[in-house]
From TrEMBL:
The chain crosses the membrane at residues 56-76, 83-103, 115-133, 145-163, 175-200, 236-259, 271-292, 304-323, 335-358, 370-394, 400-425. Residues 16-427 form the Major facilitator superfamily (MFS) profile domain. Lysosomal dipeptide uniporter that selectively exports lysine, arginine or histidine-containing dipeptides with a net positive charge from the lysosome lumen into the cytosol. Could play a role in a specific type of protein O-glycosylation indirectly regulating macrophages migration and tissue invasion. Also essential for liver homeostasis. One of its GO terms (cellular component) is lysosomal membrane. It catalyses: L-alpha-aminoacyl-L-arginine(out) = L-alpha-aminoacyl-L-arginine(in); L-lysyl-glycine(out) = L-lysyl-glycine(in); L-lysyl-L-alanine(out) = L-lysyl-L-alanine(in); L-histidyl-glycine(out) = L-histidyl-glycine(in). PROSITE patterns: MFS. Homodimer. Interacts with lysosomal protein GLMP (via lumenal domain); the interaction starts while both proteins are still in the endoplasmic reticulum and is required for stabilization of MFSD1 in lysosomes but has no direct effect on its targeting to lysosomes or transporter activity. This is Lysosomal dipeptide transporter MFSD1. It is a multi-pass membrane protein. It comes from the Eukaryota. InterPro entries: MFS, MFS_dom, MFS_trans_sf, MFSD1. Keywords: Lysosome, Membrane, Transmembrane, Transmembrane helix, Transport.
Amino acid sequence: MKQELYTSWHDTKIRWLLLALLCLFQAGCSLCIDFPFVLATEIQNYYNVHQQDINYLYAIYSMPNIILPFFGGIIIDKIGIRSALLIFCAFLIIGQSSCVYSAQVKDFNLLKVGMFLLGLGAEVSLLVTQGALLTKWFFGKEISLAFGIQLTFIRVGSIIAVNQLPQIYVNYGNSFVACMTYCLATILIITLSCIIETVIDYVSDRRDSNHYQSQAQLQLEQQKPVSCKDLKEFNYGFYLISISCMCGYCIFFILQLNALRMFQIRYNLTFFYQTLLYSLPYIICIILTPIIGHIVDKVGKRPYFLILSGFLTTLSMLVYSLNNDCSVQNECFNYALIGQILNGMFFSLFAPLIWPCIPICVSTNTQGTGFGVVCSMQNFGLTVFPIIVGKILIEETAIGYLHMIYFLGFIALIANISNINIYFYDRYNGNKLMSPTVKLPDYQIILEQEDEQN
């Protein structure tokens, strides 16, 4: 009798190669979808529109994702991660191509169509599909660390965008076409990385299917099919996490969407300081997010960290709500600096905490649906709230931006209530979120083979 030790690729260093490819995809995708944030002034000048229209542009991007991520999650659970990822990448290419054509013919309505199509592809592929793939390869191992690293590279993409896109715009003679073409080239490159991801995952599944026998196969066969009825089985804690995710992401991204113009109009800062302050939260996230993810894997205590993140964003809103006299250029830099540091610390703590909570709260075969529901709620907020902010900023004045901060402070209050409720719900329902990441045993199968002796 001879025994052969089998180890899945999920338990080897190959999972880190897949994470690297996933991070490349995240950075490139984020670079492209952030252009309304970092080119707000350029878009206004090029298309002769206002900041209100920039907020509507982001609302249009988020609009299809109120519903699509939920159904995208079901699609993932039905047809598989790989097929879904390639389908959504096709939407990215078509959407960015529409943005390029919009810039060529100078038609703002076509830019709206492009953003809508980018929303169809980016949110599901960036969050739902990639989140499900990351969970598949890292669940029971270094899942919070893995989420922290990939979220860091989303921020890397944002920093590249704020530094590269305005420079490309100027270097090519105030050409918005050049910026959109650069984004299209980036989309094509990350699509290639996505194809490599799917090949690695496919080969890994084929290897595993040839070796996983008996008990493992029986468990897969006994999993019930995914349906909309799964929503009734998600517990109260899951929906609290969804509300917290919606509020946290809305606060951060709506503030960043309007940050450059706010620093210019309300705080009277020069372009250098505007760009520096805009990049600062992302830089903080790059440094802290993987570290926090690793710490959470080791110690757990997720509800405590969520409450702390809510406290930090509330402090940030309080700093921004101070009504200062900024008539002298750059005099109010320190107030904006403190606000952005707190904002960066909040998001570095919040982002690697919230996503790994989802697979903890749902069953294995409904993880795609779980990610989809959370993304749907998140994009509900990112559709409705920017429209409200757009109404607040019909007149771009210092007072208008102060009222925007008051509105974001109200969202922060909802987030804090949700985070506190998450703590109490988890405390009386098994303390799953308080526990460190469970180290699952290596999935090894002993293949017994008879020695043939003649």
